[in-house]
């Protein structure tokens, strides 16, 4: 398969690229770094990327920005970032990208465990993650030519270690990538794939 991977230079993205590249052609796209350039917060940037890449069999996103902050300190900009990037940025990958998918293609987005297991400071991230999961479930009812799913990672051990956190409750990026591989190669549709279930 020919797979467009957005966020390929991130911690999870690199692991997903490695997992997919064993049997598939992976086209990397990033906000910065190697590969095609794209800003998922800008629909025109997504359109330009899709026009350059052309037809693919799958689109996978491990991208999406949103900030941690105490609820009382969230600014208008914090909410807009989560809505425009983490939420609509990924939704637009399906909205705009479905025309570039080959028959029986798939789109896989990224939410996260904070949709159902929030923590202090996760307000806008939990909001975006929960909205993504609901959107995928509802949209799948009207999509019959493509499969549409979302992966919900838990905290990634490599990121936790970088932040000086205890990695005990985390999952490695390589193990997290197994859920994305399942979403791309499996038959599920309208599902939230919890990453620990695929280890």
Automatic annotation (TrEMBL):
<keyword id="KW-0560">Oxidoreductase</keyword>
<dbReference type="InterPro" id="IPR036291">
    <property type="entry name" value="NAD(P)-bd_dom_sf"/>
</dbReference>
<dbReference type="GO" id="GO:0016491">
    <property type="term" value="F:oxidoreductase activity"/>
</dbReference>
<dbReference type="InterPro" id="IPR051122">
    <property type="entry name" value="SDR_DHRS6-like"/>
</dbReference>
<comment type="similarity">
    <text>Belongs to the short-chain dehydrogenases/reductases (SDR) family.</text>
</comment>
<protein>
    <submittedName>
        <fullName>Short chain dehydrogenase</fullName>
    </submittedName>
</protein>
<dbReference type="InterPro" id="IPR002347">
    <property type="entry name" value="SDR_fam"/>
</dbReference>
<dbReference type="Pfam" id="PF13561">
    <property type="entry name" value="adh_short_C2"/>
</dbReference>
């Amino acid at each position: 398969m020919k797979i467009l991977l957005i966020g390929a230079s991130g911690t999870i993205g690199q692991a997903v690229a490695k997992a997919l590249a064993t049997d598939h052609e992976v086209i990397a796209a990033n906000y910065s770094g190697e590969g095609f350039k794209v800003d998922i917060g800008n629909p025109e940037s997504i359109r330009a990327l899709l026009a350059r890449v052309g037809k693919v069999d799958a689109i996978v996103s491990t991208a999406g920005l949103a900030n941690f902050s105490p609820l009382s300190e969230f600014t208008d900009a914090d909410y807009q970032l989560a809505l425009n990037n983490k939420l609509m940025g990924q939704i637009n990958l399906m909205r705009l990208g479905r025309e570039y998918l080959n028959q029986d293609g798939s789109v896989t987005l990224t939410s996260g465990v904070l949709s159902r297991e929030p923590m202090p400071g996760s307000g806008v991230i939990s909001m975006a993650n929960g909205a993504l999961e609901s959107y995928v479930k509802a949209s799948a009812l009207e999509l019959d030519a493509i499969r549409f799913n979302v992966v919900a990672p838990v905290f990634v051990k490599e990121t936790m270690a970088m932040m000086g956190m205890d990695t005990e409750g985390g999952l490695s990026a390589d193990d997290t990538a197994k859920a994305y591989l399942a979403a791309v190669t499996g038959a599920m549709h309208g599902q939230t794939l919890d990453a620990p279930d695929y280890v």
